[in-house]
Write a structure and sequence with these properties.
The protein is built from 4 helices and 6 strands; from the N terminus they run αββββααββα. The protein is α+β, with helices and mostly antiparallel strands and 179 residues long. Bound molecules: zinc ion. Zinc ion (ZN) binds at residues 154, 156-157, 159, 168, 170-171, 173.
C-alpha cells in the first residue's frame, strides 16, 4: 500500500475510533472543557447526546482557568455552558451566535459567542469513507489477481503465460500458479 494511503487509513481509523468513543460516552455522560486565553477569549467544548459543540466568546469578562466538568446531561446544562444555552436540543450540524453587554469593572463591553455543533454520526460516516474505499479497492485487486491466476495470466500485468517459463516474458514477474 502506498505510504500516503496507509497514513490516510491510520488517521481515519483513529478519528473514527475517537468519534465512536465520544458518541457512546456522550449518550451516558456529558463533558465540558473550558478555558479563557490571555487575550480574553473564552473557549468551551461541550458534549451533548449525539453531538459536540465548540464555542468561542470574545471579551469574556471573568478569568477561567482550564477546567473539565463531567456529569449527566441535564445537570451539566446548569453548569452554565454557553454552548448548551444557544442551541437547545437541535441535533444537526449547525452554528449559532449571540452577544450581550457586560460591565467589566466599569468598562462596558460586548461578549460575542459563536457556537458550532458537530453531530457524531455524520463525522463518523465521513471518517469511515476512506476506510471503506481502501477496503473496496483491496477487494477489487484481490479478485483481479485471483481471476488472472485462474485464467493462466500474469498476476502482475495480465499477460498470457501459458507458453512462458518461470517468469512473465512481458513484465518479468515470477509466475504464481493457480491453487
Ligand atoms: Zn507480467
Amino acid at each position: 500500500m502506498p505510504i500516503a494511503r496507509r497514513l490516510t487509513v491510520i488517521f481515519s481509523s483513529m478519528m473514527c475510533g475517537v468519534l465512536l468513543v465520544g458518541f457512546l460516552r456522550g449518550i451516558f455522560i456529558g463533558d465540558l472543557l473550558r478555558w479563557r486565553t490571555a487575550r480574553g477569549t473564552y473557549f468551551e467544548i461541550v458534549t451533548v447526546p449525539t453531538q459536540f459543540r465548540i464555542s468561542a466568546a470574545k471579551n469574556w469578562p471573568i478569568a477561567q482557568p482550564f477546567s473539565w466538568i463531567h456529569g449527566a446531561y441535564p445537570e451539566l446544562s446548569a453548569a452554565g455552558a454557553v454552548g448548551h444555552h444557544l442551541m437547545g436540543i437541535r441535533t444537526g450540524l449547525s452554528s449559532d451566535s449571540q452577544s450581550w453587554r457586560v460591565n467589566n469593572n466599569g468598562t462596558v463591553g460586548q461578549v460575542i459567542v459563536m457556537t458550532h455543533a458537530f453531530p457524531y454520526p455524520i463525522l463518523i460516516v465521513l471518517t469511515a469513507i476512506p476506510l471503506l474505499l481502501s477496503w473496496i479497492s483491496r477487494r477489487v485487486l484481490e479478485r483481479r489477481a485471483a481471476q488472472r491466476r485462474e485464467r493462466g495470466l500474469c498476476v502482475a500485468c495480465g499477460y498470457d503465460l501459458r507458453a512462458a517459463g518461470e517468469r512473465c516474458s512481458e513484465c518479468g514477474s515470477a509466475i504464481q500458479n493457480a491453487g
